[in-house]
Amino acid sequence: MISQNSRESSVEILRLNSVVDMINIDFDDETLTGTHSSDPLRHAFSRKKSAHAGMAGAPVPFPDIQRTVTEALSIRAPENKNRCLYIHIPFCRVRCTYCNFFQNASSQQLVDSYFAALLQELEWKASFAWSQSAPFQAVYIGGGTPSDLSPQQIRQLAQHIKRLYPLAPDCEITLEGRLNRFDNEKFEHALEGGINRFSFGVQSFDTTVRKAARRLDSRDYLLARISALTGYNAAPIVLDLLYGLPMQTLDIWHDDLRDYLASGADGVDLYQLIEMPGIPLEKKVAQGKLPPAGSTQLKATMYETGSIFMARHHQKKLSINHWASTNRERSLYNSLAKTSADVLPVGAGAGGHLAGLQLMQFRKLEDYMQAIGNRQFPMGMIFRETPAAGIFAEIKSGMDQGVLSRLRLDEAAGRDLFARLMPLFQVWQENGLVSIEGDYLTLTLAGQFWAVNLAQGMIDVMSSGARPQHAPGGMKVPVSG
Ligand SMILES: C[S@@+](CC[C@H](N)C(=O)[O-])C[C@H]1O[C@@H](n2cnc3c(N)ncnc32)[C@H](O)[C@@H]1O
Ligand code: SF4
């Protein structure tokens, strides 16, 4: 007699086979293949497809959400799978003109009542078998601006997490935010609580560019704060820089890179500015109050400049857009979140995935607070992951590292997927985006700049076989971080 488990795994294999068998490459579609040109970095595609590659699964009907999540959290997690905790603080004092992530303007009362609900949610979710059954490798407190919490709240939040969840001994616990008002008292409270990594959005050091983006501090203030925090010699201090902001010329970008190096920070992310519809920048440009953001070609040149700069200054490359200057920086959460590692979401607007489900928590504060008050999961939408979610995660994490391995891709697919995709890889190679070396597909500098398009392209050519029944075509679910 065939057991339930083996029946389920046979069905899984059949579904994966259909994903691989139904690969459909349209070689006339230049949004997939890229354009053949002498300058692929600047001209292979017209624009970046989206911030992240992805594909949604089948939505779980709203009345079934509570039961589905309860069941998922009531079983033990597989011990050999990496997992992370993501906690969202959806408040900012001021909205930056370029930002996609802004949710709520902060007011003390609102933040305090949200904070109380968040502690409750953490405590409740920790009580499930899934949460207690295996160690967490990374915790990320993101936003919004978690660094705007009070010193006591930051310490209490970290202590709460450490007390309630089984964290691996080397668990990375990151606090995200900005340097504005992040004084020594806050830093010391965070360290006391157990935060062991700090990620600050700087975006640009240039005071004029910063003012145009509604950033709050001057270059001198930022450099003084970074110097004070690295002076503790206690935890990695990592910075985000954006390229393509209005008024950020190539010379200013070069100064930004030099300022990062001189600041003594332990690492840096270089992010390309993505202009999502509805950001304040759009209106300001239309009204003539701000010059437009950098063109795709300028952004490509900025990426090239950044990449060359990092290599010249012997910065350690951790991914296609993240570098470390010291061994202290590991960037564990950022790399794990792009693999098939589970992510337990906590807080309004947090996203995650676990036990084959993609989870998106309520963004509206009232909905979130009401659900927590009623001891309900604060989730408006959840999706069952597509059968190919493991393959897609392997593609995304490979592209993020700048290299796809035949062994790993075929292992995720249970089939010869690397060989099946080879015709597409060959066109990309002719177009200067990748180089095929034995069992590895390595991204060229141009390929690294266009990595999200390449990842999305691979996902799209498999999608007719991967799309589950009743899935909303092309809808994406963001995963936090
Ligand atoms: C969610 S934000 C939180 C950071 C923090 N609140 C701050 O003010 O720096 C994390 C990072 O997302 C990046 N980001 C925000 N808007 C972006 C956009 N439109 N395109 C690309 N990256 C963006 C920024 O580099 C930012 O540091
Ligand atoms: S960049 Fe940070 S502070 Fe600015 S709006 Fe976005 S999340 Fe808020």
UniProtKB/TrEMBL annotation:
Keywords: Iron, Iron-sulfur, Metal-binding, Oxidoreductase, S-adenosyl-L-methionine. One of its GO terms (biological process) is porphyrin-containing compound biosynthetic process. Its EC number is 1.3.98.3. Pfam families: Radical_SAM (PF04055). SMART domains: Elp3. One of its GO terms (molecular function) is 4 iron, 4 sulfur cluster binding. Its cofactor is [4Fe-4S] cluster. GO terms for cellular component: cytoplasm. SUPFAM superfamilies: Radical SAM enzymes. The keyword Lipid metabolism does not apply. It is an enzyme of class 1 (oxidoreductase). Residues 77-321 form the Radical SAM core domain. It comes from the Bacteria. PANTHER family: COPROPORPHYRINIGEN III OXIDASE (PTHR13932), COPROPORPHYRINOGEN III OXIDASE (PTHR13932:SF9). This is Oxygen-independent coproporphyrinogen-III oxidase 1. It comes from Vibrio aerogenes CECT 7868. The lineage of its organism: Bacteria, Pseudomonadati, Pseudomonadota, Gammaproteobacteria, Vibrionales. The gene is hemN_3.
